[in-house]
Write a structure and sequence with these properties.
By secondary structure, the chain is of the alpha/beta class. The chain is about 35% helix and about 20% strand. The chain contains 19 helices and 28 strands. The strands form 5 sheets. Strands 2-1-11-10-12-13-14-15 form an 8-stranded mixed β-sheet. Strands 7-6-5-3-4-8-9 form a 7-stranded mixed β-sheet, sandwiched between helices. The model has no long low-confidence stretch (mean pLDDT about 90).
């Protein structure tokens, strides 16, 4: 396709140069050649996508120019925020629904100044690390922002973590101090002995000296005595320096600390702001945890960098979601993971149509419920995007294409250097051609998303993790061409003829059964819909003597209400035979991360063994066409090969 475009462009100028014919005649002749050479399909793609691609190109150009300007001025997130404060100091910046506390931009600036001055006077300097472990509220933003004003890097700790995982995250950050919320007293007391003796502890919020770990200081009182004037200006901190650390969700193994630099924070927030045409009058409803990039960068970044008002909710609540949106007149709501499905599972109420929300912004909305969500709640636009805290190949669905998580131009694909490359979907090993370079996927072919790394370009750099080994594992060589490097997303996507990208599966979530590849994401969506939006996790389990992996579904059924006979009939109507779960595990609740991603690693390891699983287990009996209880005798027969699947 691209050779035709290049040939026609050259022909256009050659005809003009040799014949001196008028441009309209030259263009007509070139167009005729193009169509004759088989370019009709390309023209269809061109006219279908040109408007979308021009908008995206404009967004990239604008962000690139702004990044260049910020680099030249040696800007940081606090410096950009200072410009916003100067512009409208009395405008509402943050609203915390928990207490109704409303902070203006001046309030947020002065609180963060107190934080900066306090830690600076204690001797904290550029490169020091302070862990922040608290639930979402206004002070959370002011804490890490204030630390950034004096070059201190915040480690944003998931407030759902406990014991070993919590101690691990704090220790690998090499934090000099920990600021924790009073609501998390017990969690800190449990790991107090696992922390370094020199680590200082500060409590913010609920304070009871008899309940906090020994040596804990009351940060709120200390900040009251600190100056609210701007701290001493930083001389050695710039746009590409570290801002804070955000941890991966830990769906497999211990969480990793991803490095977020100032330019990355800006890039992620700005691409969303310009790409989805936000404006200063928008009010964002941020019910996502602020230790996560979606809540703290995509959402909160609109406040700090673009002057929008953001409503913070301590934790997501499906029952209170629309009440909050109406109360605070929110125009943009954020979602992630399964939030949209949880909203659909709520009983219909009048309030869900009385809001003024114009856009839902997030990632992870299942295509199977996309239109149900938009029609029931009257949401004009779904701003679905793809990205991770550390990735350099983010995507955005700028034109409301149902089911897509973003796109890349088919007209000028080299403008944004990302690509889907062929992989072995079982091992995620890159498949290479004879020249040793990765093989790009054609439309309709699933492949791993990769992004070319250009370390001196803030839009293309990869900052990695605190752990260098973890960083190395995410980098591949000779991907686009010999000698280059690229970031490995670990995610399988599929692109259509128009360049729209559709999320398929995360690493290890696709398995092969009966000679077919099974997408756990698709099956989970179908099963959840069949079971009235119940939590469902699908994964593959090994069966002795069987090729591939058999599908297994873990279903949240706390009250034993699932009608397995009806369920089996419904599956025959909605799923091909190879995609229907062979095994079922009925359990009280499905374990999820703090960002609503299902944790299936342990369930995969446990398989379908009734000796290690206390939950109800079932197997699909093909002859009887129903699910039958899976006891130890049946398990032994499956293991020995007597019971065929």
């Amino acid at each position: 396709m691209m050779w035709r475009l290049a040939t026609c462009t050259a022909l256009l100028f050659l005809l003009r140069l040799v014949t001196r014919l008028p441009w309209p005649l030259v263009a007509a002749a070139t167009c005729a050649f193009y169509l004759a050479s088989g370019g009709r399909k390309f023209l269809g793609i061109f006219f279908k996508t040109i408007r979308r691609d021009v908008h995206a190109a404009g967004v990239l150009l604008k962000v690139k120019l702004n990044v260049k300007r910020n680099l030249k001025l040696n800007n940081t997130v606090p410096k950009i925020f200072h410009e916003i404060v100067q512009r409208h100091p009395d405008k509402t910046a943050l609203i915390f629904e928990g207490t109704g506390a409303s902070w203006s931009f001046r309030d947020l600036d002065e609180y963060s100044n107190r934080v900066a001055n306090y830690f600076h006077e204690l001797g904290y300097r550029t490169g020091d690390v302070v862990a922040v472990f608290m639930e979402s509220r206004n002070e959370y933003v002011g804490l890490w922002l204030g630390m950034a004003k004096v070059g201190v890097e915040a480690a944003l700790i998931n407030f759902n973590l406990r014991m070993d995982a919590l101690a691990h995250c704090i220790n690998i950050s090499r934090a000099n101090a920990i600021v924790f919320g009073g609501e998390l007293n017990n969690a800190l007391k449990e790991i107090h002995g696992l922390l370094g003796k020199s680590v200082r502890l500060y409590c913010s919020g609920e304070w009871n000296v008899s309940e906090v770990p020994p040596g804990t200081e009351n940060l709120d009182c200390l900040l009251e005595a600190a100056s609210k004037r701007p701290p001493p200006p930083l001389q050695n901190r710039g746009f590409t320096d570290r801002l804070f650390y955000i941890y991966t969700s830990g769906t497999t193994g211990m969480p990793k600390a991803a490095i977020v630099v100032h330019s990355r924070y800006y890039r992620m927030a700005a691409l969303v702001y310009y790409g989805y045409r936000m404006n200063a009058d928008d009010i964002v409803y941020d019910c996502l945890p602020l230790y996560h990039s979606a809540g703290n960068i995509v959402g909160m970044g609109q406040c700090l960098l673009h002057g929008l008002t953001v409503v913070i909710r301590r934790k997501f609540s499906a029952s209170r979601f629309w009440d909050d949106c109406v109360k605070y007149r929110c125009t943009i709501v954020q979602y992630i993971g399964e939030i949209c499905r949880y909203l659909l599972s709520q009983p219909p109420r009048d309030v869900e149509r009385q809001h003024c929300v114009r856009m839902a912004l997030g990632n992870g909305l299942r295509p199977s419920i996309w239109e149900d969500f938009t029609s029931r709640f009257h949401i004009p636009q779904v701003a679905e995007f793809y990205g991770a805290t550390e990735c350099n190949c983010s995507l955005g669905n700028f034109d409301n294409k149902v089911g897509a998580c973003g796109f890349n131009s088919r007209i000028l694909p080299f403008v944004y250097p990302i690509r889907l490359v062929k992989v072995d979907e079982n091992t995620m090993e890159l498949i290479r051609g004879r020249d040793g370079v990765c093989i790009p996927c054609k439309p309709g072919e699933p492949g791993q998303l990769v992004g070319r790394i250009v370390q001196n370009d803030p839009l293309r750099r990869f900052d990695g993790y605190v752990n260098e080994t973890a960083t190395t594992k995410k980098i591949a060589h000779d991907v686009f061409k010999k000698g280059d490097t690229a970031y490995l997303s670990g995610d399988v996507l599929v692109m259509d003829d128009y360049g729209y990208m559709y999320f398929r599966d995360r690493t290890g979530d696709t398995f092969r059964w009966k000679g077919e590849n099974v997408s756990t994401t698709e099956v989970e969506g179908t099963l959840s819909r069949t079971l009235s939006m119940a939590d469902v996790v699908v994964y593959g389990v090994e069966v002795p003597g069987a090729e591939g992996k058999a599908g297994m579904a873990a279903i949240a059924d706390p009250n034993s209400q699932v009608d397995l006979e009806k369920f089996c009939i419904d599956l025959e109507m909605t799923l091909p035979s190879y995609a229907r779960p062979v095994f079922l595990r009925m359990l009280p609740a499905v374990s999820k991360t703090g960002t609503f991603k299902f944790q299936k690693t342990d369930m995969r390891k446990e398989g379908f063994n009734p000796r290690v699983i206390n939950d109800r287990l079932y197997m699909l009996d093909q002859r009887q066409r129903k699910y039958i209880p899976l006891d130890e005798e049946l398990f032994r027969n499956i293991q020995s090969g007597k019971q065929k699947l």
